[in-house]
Design a protein that fits this description.
By secondary structure, the protein is α/β, with parallel strands linked by helices. The strands form 5 sheets. Strands 2-1-11-10-12-13-14-15 form an 8-stranded mixed sheet, with helices on both faces. β20 and β21 form a beta hairpin. The chain is globular. It starts with a helix and ends in a 5-residue tail after the last helix. GO terms for molecular function: long-chain fatty acid transmembrane transporter activity; long-chain fatty acid-CoA ligase activity; nucleotide binding.
Length: 627
């Protein structure tokens, strides 16, 4: 339309018609407008693709300089301390801690560990903490000593917690005082292994456990000499983060210092600046939580930290701390949208939301209710060597394929006649895999070469190549946007956590009355992910004990991994290789009117599994009963 108007102006302008030079300029301008219009119509995301590619190129350039200097994220932090020592770095409850405060506190932690343990460069220390500044101070203190940190999930208990500690190779454990009783459950084994155990408190009467708060308070805040960590390299382990993976107990994914840099640049590529205040209420032991922390360091910005997510306090916190960027998982937005509407819903300074796992309908509802917030959806895994980002804001997409970022998709790698994999077609679901290379390495799991190898695919497209198997199904539309479809294998996601079905089955079958357990995830209308369900075969003559089963799973499993539904069967069907069949069970779900087997639902209030009636089912579907 603009081109047409300009053309009409030219026709009615005698000077333009009679002057060849002016006519040429106008025609050139018109041609450019028409060409831009064509590009915009044919490639509506072209400019965003270019902009994202430029940012990506700048990140690669910065990363190359980091490699040359062998800098870690700690070096970036120390640089921030020099440039703006008194700038607020951590906002927590009613306290504000500057970059200099954090530097001094982490020095005290490091010196306390030097004085009261014999840890040295290259060792690992496990930390069991909720979200609080000490979590961050301890991690920075460990990096200053050249040590790595095993970030234990505070939901783990007993056998699972001990397994997570042991597979990291740690010889020291530091726990928050609120987790003292949790540690006491595994303390006899830790004592046998001569593990040094500290609790962040001033007093502790438990034998084999020492106080740590007093030791930090008495330690010097003088800087730690650089030569203490002189052998740390970018490929050295920085942290161990636990992932359920596809089978068995949690595995310790190794994140190197280079991997932390890659995660830290996410905020930069989305346009977060040093003036932003980043709000985090997700657990710091998760990759997403740690990424927010290290990203804040990379940007030199401020982190507003909350101990746990609270939908009712979320926007109050954002106003209190003048938050401009928030971090989310899918459940975050759904919980916020389910709160009672307030006149102040749009009264905030939040301009951007970074995270993953939000449904398209919740995404739209979130924007309609809370105002224009730029949502940056991500896709990635803790141990993976690939990450996707939806930099355009296309609702529902987790990423976009452009000429800088190619992915290979195929469901359960289908081999052609030559033995190589075949790429999935546009619109067809496929297994997301990513080539393993020097630029995109796959480090794997600590002390678990068998599970590490299971994530590798060999001879995929050409002889000798290797690819990382994400275990996730995705698909690409005609505009090259990528969408998450489902997970494959023996795992499902609930409450923002990955749940390994084999781990839950193993816990259930330790009960005297249960012969077999087949665990899987089922869709619940209006809920993110899948709720856990277990099909059980009881031992002959044994009744189902709803109270005992609740007590058992509560003791050994974190809340998100406990089966919400139980189905009692006379026999569990298996495949020819004696693996439990799950597809039909998943399809049947938990509908009482369609299933003749006895069904039970977890009742947190009565601390029991109670019979699932049709009325209760309707209440779950309508949202009256919260899972």
């Amino acid at each position: 339309l603009l081109s047409l108007v300009i053309w009409l102006v030219i026709l009615h302008c005698d000077h333009g018609v009679n002057n060849p030079s002016t006519m040429f300029i106008w025609m050139t301008f018109l041609f450019c407008l028409l060409w831009i219009g064509f590009l915009y119509h044919r490639y509506p995301y072209f400019l965003q693709d270019v902009q994202n590619s430029v940012k990506f190129a700048l990140v690669r350039y910065t990363l190359s300089k980091v490699r040359e200097r062998n800098d870690t994220i700690l070096d970036r932090f120390l640089d921030c301390v020099k440039r703006h020592p008194h700038k607020p770095f951590i906002l927590f409850e009613d306290e504000s801690y500057s970059y200099l405060d954090t530097d001094r506190q982490s020095n005290k932690v490091a010196r306390a560990l030097q004085q009261h343990t014999d840890i040295k460069e290259g060792d690992t220390v496990a930390i069991l903490f909720g979200n609080q500044p000490f979590f961050l101070w301890i991690w920075l203190g460990l990096v200053k000593l050249g040590c790595s940190a095993a970030l234990l999930n505070y939901n783990m208990r007993s056998r699972s917690l001990l397994h997570c500690f042991s597979c990291s190779g740690a010889n020291v454990l530091i726990a928050g005082k609120e987790y003292k009783e949790v540690v006491e459950e595994i303390l006899p084994t830790l004592t046998e292994q001569k593990v040094k155990v500290f609790v962040l408190a001033d007093q502790c009467t438990t034998a084999g456990m020492e106080t740590f708060s007093d030791k930090i308070r008495q330690a010097s805040s003088e800087p730690i000499p650089v030569d203490v960590r002189s052998n740390v390299r970018l490929m050295s382990p920085a942290v161990y983060i636990y992932t359920s993976g596809t089978t068995g107990l949690p595995k310790a994914a190794v994140l190197t210092h280079l991997r932390l840099w890659n995660l830290s640049f996410v905020q930069s590529t989305f346009g977060v600046s040093s003036t932003d205040v980043f709000y985090l209420n997700l657990p710091l032991y998760h990759t997403s939580g740690l990424m927010a922390f290290t990203g804040t360091i990379e940007r030199g910005s401020t982190l507003a930290l909350r101990s746990k997510f609270s939908a009712s306090h979320f926007w109050d916190d954002c106003r209190k701390y003048n938050v401009t960027v928030i971090h989310y998982i899918g459940e975050t937005m759904r919980y916020l949208c389910s709160t009672q509407k307030r006149p102040s819903d749009r009264n905030h300074k939040v301009r951007m939301a970074i995270g993953n796992g939000v449904r398209a309908d919740v995404w739209r509802e979130f924007l309609n209710r809370f105002g224009h917030i730029s949502v940056k959806e991500l896709y990635g895994s803790t141990e993976g060597n690939i990450g996707l980002s939806n930099y355009t804001g296309k609702v529902g997409a987790v990423g976009r394929v452009n000429f800088f970022h190619k992915v290979k998709l195929q469901y359960q790698p289908l081999r052609n006649s030559e033995g190589f994999c075949v790429e999935a077609a546009t619109g067809e679901a496929g297994l997301l895999i990513s080539q393993i290379s020097q630029k995109a390495p796959f480090i794997g799991y600590a002390r678990d070469p068998k599970q590490t190898e299971k994530k590798r695919l060999h001879d995929v497209f050409v002889k000798g190549d290797q690819y990382f198997n994400t275990g996730d199904l995705l698909w690409i539309d005609e505009e090259n946007f990528i969408y998450f479809q489902d997970r494959i294998g023996d795992t499902f996601r609930w409450k923002g956590e990955n749940v390994a079905t084999n781990e839950v089955s193993d816990i259930l079958t330790t009960m005297p009355s249960i012969q077999e357990a087949n665990v899987y995830g089922v869709k619940v209308p209006g809920q993110e992910g899948r709720a856990g369900m277990a099909a059980l075969r009881l031992k002959e003559g044994e009744p189902f004990d709803g109270t005992g089963t609740f007590r058992h799973v509560s003791r050994y499993l974190p809340a998100y991994a406990r089966p919400r539904f139980i189905r009692i069967q006379n026999c569990l069907t298996v495949t020819g290789t004696f693996k439990h069949r799950k597809v039909k069970l998943v399809e049947e779900g938990f509908k009482p009117d369609e299933i003749s087997d006895r069904l039970y639902i977890l009742d947190d209030k009565d601390k029991c599994y109670v019979p699932l009636t049709q009325r209760m089912y309707d209440s779950v579907v309508s949202g009256m009963i919260k899972l």
